[in-house]
Design goal:
This protein is α/β, with parallel strands linked by helices and about 375 residues long. It has 14 helices and 12 strands. The strands form 2 sheets. A 6-stranded parallel beta sheet has the order 3-2-1-4-5-6, sandwiched between helices. A 6-stranded parallel beta sheet has the order 9-8-7-10-11-12, sandwiched between helices.
């Protein structure tokens, strides 16, 4: 194979990841790819929910939706045909699945880069071994490493891994305006700070800080700050939010299960604070520049914490953490060691340290004119 040149790469397809948090952690790599190939047309092949996350992203040209349903065997072939029709010159595979490499190979994309996971190395023109630091460095570098390999391939060297990852995401003004309207219709009040809590987690019960502690925290935000308190999450997390509400003295704005990802992203772009478990919204809110406090228990903050100057974590790890288990086999001590008073104090400090926030509680009109927020 001849040495590839940047000028010959005109059309690029990137196979995105399947989880929201992982998708946000690919943002630095997508930005690095745009910087490396500024004149290329970059398409992100991803699931339909990603539209709400990447809508209007300045580092992408378009999205190619691929929602494969279980048991639909022709879907990969149809996707490969679409890739072939679009005449991609380069395929970057962030997804680790064998199928992603197979689609790129069947589509006859000349350059195919990705990790040699699931025994798929023979389908790639340039396969990467898992880096030795994979479990000791932030997950964003896992994806940046692929772009660093591409830069070395094109230019002979790379400094991508030496730079701080850039996660910035933005939401258009019209989407923010609709988010304010949605909160008004849901019972929000003008002149109140907006605090969102995400007490669930889809893929791990062990990640969940106890519902009664979220309830105690929510009541303090309402009673001491006069906050509009939002409970957010997917429909699969509704039972957790309902449990939190049952333990509360005050009534929150129950948004769990009532928004799609696009609406949730827009809402997170206007909150004054998000307190959450180690879940996708943590990465979204921090990438949007909103103060974010993440409660960590069984997972490793070294690799999965939000990397943002407005994001912090709360963690009191016992000897068994991080265990990475989805269900705690003992007493969930990594989470029960964290008290609501501790989280509330950290949240208040985070709020007041953000220069864009209100100087005194209630000064900012959380549901006022979107142009002033």
């Amino acid at each position: 194979m001849t040495q590839p040149k940047s000028k010959d790469i005109k059309r690029v397809v990137v196979r995105g990841t399947n989880w929201v948090g992982d998708a946000v952690m690919t943002v630095p790599a997508l930005r690095a790819l745009r910087q490396l190939l500024p004149n290329a047309h970059i398409t992100l092949a991803t699931r339909s929910w990603s539209t709400g996350l990447f809508d209007g992203a300045d580092f992408l040209d378009d999205l190619l939706i691929y929602d494969r349903k279980p048991g639909v065997f022709m879907a990969p072939l149809r996707q490969a045909r679409e890739w072939r029709r679009r005449s991609f010159d380069l395929a970057i595979l962030f997804q680790n699945a064998f199928e992603a490499a197979l689609i790129a190979r069947v589509a006859r994309v000349p350059l195919r880069l990705g990790y040699a996971t699931q025994h798929r190395g023979f389908l790639l023109t340039h396969s990467l071994s898992l880096p030795q630091w994979h479990n000791s460095r932030h997950e964003s570098f896992y994806y940046l490493n692929i772009i660093a390999h591409l830069e070395t391939l094109l230019d002979g060297s790379s400094k991508i891994l030496d730079r701080e990852p850039v996660f910035n995401l933005s939401v258009r003004d019209d989407r923010r305006a609709k988010a304010f309207e949605f909160l008004r219709a849901s019972g929000g009040s003008e002149g109140h700070p907006i605090v969102a809590l995400c007490p669930g987690s889809i893929n791990s019960r062990a990640k969940r800080w106890p519902a009664e502690r979220y309830a105690a925290l929510a009541d303090r935000f309402i009673e001491e700050m006069g906050a509009d308190l939002l409970l957010i999450g997917t429909a699969e997390e509704l039972d957790v939010s309902q449990e939190v509400r049952q333990h509360m003295r005050n009534e929150p704005l129950m948004l769990t299960g009532k928004t799609d990802l696009a609406q949730a992203v827009a809402i997170l772009s206007i909150v004054d604070l998000l307190v959450t478990n180690d879940t996708g919204p943590a990465h979204i809110a921090s990438a949007l520049g909103r103060p974010t406090l993440v409660i960590f228990g069984p997972t490793n903050p070294l690799t999965t914490r939000p990397l943002s100057p407005v994001a912090e974590i709360v963690r009191h790890p016992p000897d068994c953490a991080p265990c990475m288990l989805r269900d705690c086999p003992i007493d969930h001590r990594c989470m029960t060691a964290i008290a609501p008073d501790d989280v509330f104090a950290r949240a208040c400090k985070l709020l007041m340290s953000d220069k864009r926030q209100f100087v005194a509680v209630g000064e900012r009109s959380g549901l006022g004119d979107p142009a002033t927020n």
